[in-house]
């Protein structure tokens, strides 16, 4: 059973390739004869796998996102360049840059929203909170993202789920449900400017530890 994701939106890495054939789906071994780079990208709706094939003889370029072919170009004369596509439910812009290093060696880097993957994840870690918990036999990933929305929004497995925000004595609570489970994220002031607001996830009256950034 895959990891499900709940996203709450209120008013992340390294950009180097990760080679991990053991965790890649079977189509890699059967079809990806020119696989040169794999990245795992954590967005609000979950972790997405981006795989890139580059034929350094033919110039072929193939991009897969979560196992689905997004781009295929055969017999390209120019071996360097870039490929741009979208990732995730929010259609986040991603670009693979292909640069010559020396001779017939090439370097592949991934950019998300115009930033290197490492920089993007560093910025994202400052505006998101993530929790992972186990409910009803499934692993659930809850993401709180600070944005400009006046009302919190969320989704489970890509389906938008509204959250109900309300003021309480010491802060605010955003309530939502996952199956038959009552959940809310409580926001209170830390009293320190550098730390800002502290967010805590409560599920069935139990506090869930936050995933380290």
Describe this structure in words.
It comes from Cricetulus griseus (Chinese hamster). This protein is mainly beta and 213 residues long. The chain has two domains: 35-119, Beta Barrel (Lipocalin); 127-207, Beta Barrel (Lipocalin). The protein is built from two helices and 18 strands. The chain has helices spanning 26-31, 117-125, and strands spanning 4-10, 35-43, 46-54, 61-65, 68-73, 81-87, 92-102, 105-112, 115-116, 128-135, 138-146, 153-156, 159-162, 164-168, 171-178, 181-189, 197-203, 206-208. The strands form four sheets. A five-stranded mixed β-sheet has the order 10-11-1-12-13, with no helix packed on it. A five-stranded antiparallel β-sheet has the order 14-15-16-17-18, with no helix packed on it. It has a four-stranded antiparallel β-sheet with strand order 2-3-4-5, with no helix packed on it. Strand 4 (61-65) and strand 5 form a beta hairpin. Mean pLDDT is 78; it is low at 9-30 and 148-160.
């Amino acid at each position: 059973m895959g990891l499900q994701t709940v996203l709450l939106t209120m008013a992340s890495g390294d950009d180097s390739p990760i080679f991990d054939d053991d965790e890649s789906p079977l189509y890699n071994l059967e079809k990806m004869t020119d696989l040169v780079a794999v990245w795992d990208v954590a967005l609000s709706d979950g972790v997405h796998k981006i795989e890139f094939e580059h034929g350094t003889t033919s110039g072929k370029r193939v991009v897969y996102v979560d196992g689905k072919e997004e781009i295929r170009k055969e017999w390209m004369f120019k071996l360097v360049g870039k490929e741009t596509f979208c990732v995730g439910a929010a259609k986040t812009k991603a670009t693979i840059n292909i640069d010559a290093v020396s001779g017939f060696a090439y370097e592949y880097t991934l950019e998300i929203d115009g930033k290197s993957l490492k920089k993007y994840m560093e910025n994202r870690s400052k505006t998101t909170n993530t929790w992972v918990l186990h409910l009803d036999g499934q692993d659930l990933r809850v993401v709180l993202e600070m944005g400009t929305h006046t009302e919190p929004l969320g989704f489970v497995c890509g389906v938008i789920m509204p959250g109900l925000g309300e003021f309480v004595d010491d802060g605010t609570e955003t309530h939502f449900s996952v199956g038959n489970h009552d959940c809310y994220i409580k926001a209170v002031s830390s009293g320190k400017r550098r730390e800002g607001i502290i967010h805590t996830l409560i599920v069935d009256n139990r506090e869930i530890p936050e995933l380290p950034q």
